[in-house]
Write a structure and sequence with these properties.
Blueprint (H helix, E strand, L loop, with lengths): L12 H8 L11 H6 L22 H18 L2 H7 L4 H10 L17 H12 L3 H11 L4 H7 L2 H13 L3 E4 L15 E4 L5 E12 L6 E8 L3 E8 L5 E6 L10 E12 L3 E2 L5 H37 L1 E2 L2 E2 L4 H30 L5 H26 L1 H4 L2 H6 L7 H8 L9 H12 L1 H12 L9 H14 L8 H10 L5 H27 L7 H26 L3 H30 L3 H12 L15 H4 L1
Parallel strand pairs: 1-4, 2-4
Antiparallel strand pairs: 2-3, 3-7, 4-5, 5-8, 6-7, 9-10
């Protein structure tokens, strides 16, 4: 679990994100959301791939058979309640998963895996997450941020043939980046790798924190600095002498996951175990994190589905004041939003998987948006389920079972779900990441102008005017979807259909978003990085526009005819909720209390309101630290 703590410091949010993303590659392939923020969404990118399946990808019948065996395994051999109670995933469960091939789902067949597509992999995580979220988290950490993906994307052929078959057979893997004093800022990393005198291996020293699967993994990807500055990715065998687990971390949820604090003392790692190039480790980490975000979108969806059934059942069974509690309008609305949210989450999961499997787009922003949206919606669904089930939502499952009652683990799922607003990028950091990525072309083009002052700006003005005057004019077209977007939308969904109207709205609103982004840069210049609330609102508008587009295309292109009418009703609810959020963000872009709230928050931070603790048992946290 990569550290999500990324709170920006005095250097400013966009600058902080830029520093963290310094190793990232510029976008070389098209991105739907980048076009969206520029007022030119390319709807054709959302179309399902028409390409023939890759040769190593399981046929539908083969994969469905695997999925059936996995579901049977979950029902018969995975006791989710025992995993929660004992805070341990039994070794027999891990062995069974390995025998099924579930530990090599996305490893190509030539290296001993199942060779599944991203869509197939996400369906597995959704299924497992709907039964035992902790087990799904283990699988995600193992295959999304563990050794297999970095080696597949950046490793040598020799590394692939050495490590991937071993992982597919059942050797669990982990990812180690975060340190006790360092989160998202790699510049502060203290773990070092020193090339030995013989030149054949590196010697690693340091500590790593929150290493998911670290206590049960046989191999891990570990980040360390070579020559004090060059962040580098290493494959580290856990049996290597010098690796010591200092503590297994204990959290409010996901109790069965093995997440550890470990120390490395003179750990010898062969030079051949460097992934990619020395100094390119952050690039490996960023790509790995991107993969993890796609996976967590599916895991959150599975948990939401687990909550849906018992909540609706209880809402219809439990009666108060002469009718089922679900018939009381406030609860009825909760159920409606829950159903619509799950539908939209499924559409977003389908969309990001389609983008990954096409292998023709840069989907880093969409992956962040998918993880952000699905984790936030899951939290709302947990809250609704807890509220509808009342005391039985708050009560532990084992306590209800003692009375002989059905015992869905709502209380546990709420604790578990809280992680996903933090892990693999906290919600706040993801909004900033999205803004940084989609505005990268503007920041590159106008950076000199924004950072200069007075007459210095004049040198940049002519070239910028040459680009931005026609760019700005395009954002005021008032004839519905632009010619290119209209053609793409018409090819994607039938003209005049409900889905086509949503794409029309997305295109029109994207131009409004592009104008707002220009206004913000013109108004605040280089200080825009300090306007985090403003930047976040702009990013969230883009996320919801993506959700609307994905929901419209999913409804029209994927949902089968017998369910289409019902699906459109769910889609309409989800889209209306998204539109309301968009309207609220636009309203508060320029009409807000951001300055006042920031000023007040700074006074709080400067200890100006410490008197609010009066009357409580006060702890001196400075001394405690």
């Amino acid at each position: 679990m990569m550290d999500p703590m990324g709170t920006s410091g005095a250097g400013g949010l966009l600058k902080g994100v830029k520093d963290v993303e310094a190793a990232r590659e510029s976008m070389r392939r098209p991105s739907f959301m980048t076009g969206l923020f520029a007022g030119q969404p390319r709807f054709e990118l959302l179309a399902p791939s028409q390409a023939a399946p890759r040769g190593s990808e399981p046929r539908d019948s083969e994969f469905e058979a695997f999925l059936g065996r996995l579901e049977t395994f979950l029902r018969e051999r995975v006791d989710a309640e025992a995993i929660e109670r004992d805070a341990e995933i039994p070794r027999a469960v891990l062995t069974g998963l390995a025998e099924l091939g579930a530990l090599g789902i996305n490893i190509p067949k030539e290296y001993g895996g199942l060779g599944c597509s991203q869509r197939q992999y996400n369906r597995v995580l959704m299924l497992v997450g709907s039964h035992c979220n902790t087990l799904a988290l283990l699988l995600s950490a193992h295959q999304s941020i563990g050794v297999s993906k970095p080696v597949l994307h950046f490793g040598t052929e020799a590394q692939k043939r050495e490590w991937l078959p071993r992982i597919a057979r059942g050797a669990l893997s982990a990812f180690a980046l975060t340190e006790p004093g360092v989160g998202s800022d790699p510049a502060g990393m203290s773990t070092v790798a020193t090339l030995a005198a013989d030149g054949g291996h590196y010697v690693l020293n340091g500590e790593k924190l929150w290493c998911t699967n670290g206590g049960v993994a046989e191999v891990m990807v570990l980040m360390a600095k070579v020559d004090a500055t060059a962040v580098t990715a290493f494959i580290v065998d856990r049996e290597t002498p010098g690796i010591e687990i200092l503590n297994r971390c204990s959290f409010m949820g996901n109790r069965g996951i093995s997440n550890v604090w470990l120390r490395l003392r003179d750990v010898h790692v062969p030079k051949e175990n460097v992934i990619g190039e020395v100094g390119k480790g952050l690039r490996v980490a960023l790509a790995t994190l991107n993969t993890g975000r796609v996976s967590l979108a599916a895991l959150c969806l599975g948990m939401a589905k687990q909550l849906y059934g018992p909540t609706v059942w209880w809402a219809g069974k439990r009666e108060t004041f002469g009718k089922p509690i679900g018939r009381h309008e406030l609860n009825t609305h909760k159920l409606a939003r829950m159903a619509a949210d799950i539908y939209a989450m499924e559409a977003v999961d389908w969309s990001i998987c389609a983008l990954v499997d096409r292998a023709e787009t840069d989907h880093r922003v969409e992956a962040a948006a998918a993880k952000l949206f699905n984790s936030e919606r899951l939290w709302d669904i947990c809250d609704a389920a807890m509220q509808v089930r009342g005391g039985r939502g708050y009560e532990k499952a084992e306590s209800m079972k003692a009375r002989g009652e059905p015992a869905p683990p709502v209380e546990q799922l709420m604790r578990d779900a809280r992680l996903y607003l933090i892990g693999e990028g906290a919600s706040e950091i993801l909004t900033l990441f999205i803004a940084r990525e989609v505005w990268d072309p503007h920041l590159r083009r106008a950076g000199g102008f924004l950072e200069s002052a007075g007459v210095g700006k004049l040198a940049h003005a002519p070239q910028l005017a040459k680009f931005y005057l026609p760019y700005y004019a395009r954002q005021w077209k008032a004839n519905g979807v632009t010619t290119g977007a209209a053609k793409e939308a018409g090819q994607l969904v039938p003209e005049g259909s409900w889905a086509h109207k949503q794409l029309d709205y997305v295109e029109r609103t994207s131009r409004k978003l592009a104008r707002a982004g220009l206004y913000a840069m013109a108004l605040h210049g280089a200080k825009l990085e300090q306007r985090q609330a403003l930047v976040s609102r702009l990013a969230l508008i883009g996320v919801d526009l993506y959700v609307i587009a994905a929901t419209a295309v999913y409804t029209e292109r994927v949902v089968s005819a017998p369910r289409r009418v019902q699906a459109e009703r769910l889609a309409q609810q989800a889209v209306e909720e998204a539109r309301r959020r968009i309207d609220a963000c636009f309203r508060t872009l320029w009409d807000n209390t951001d300055d006042e709230t920031t000023a007040l928050g700074n006074v709080v931070l400067n200890r100006g309101y410490d008197w609010l603790s009066e009357g409580s048992v006060v702890v001196d946290w400075e001394r405690a630290a």
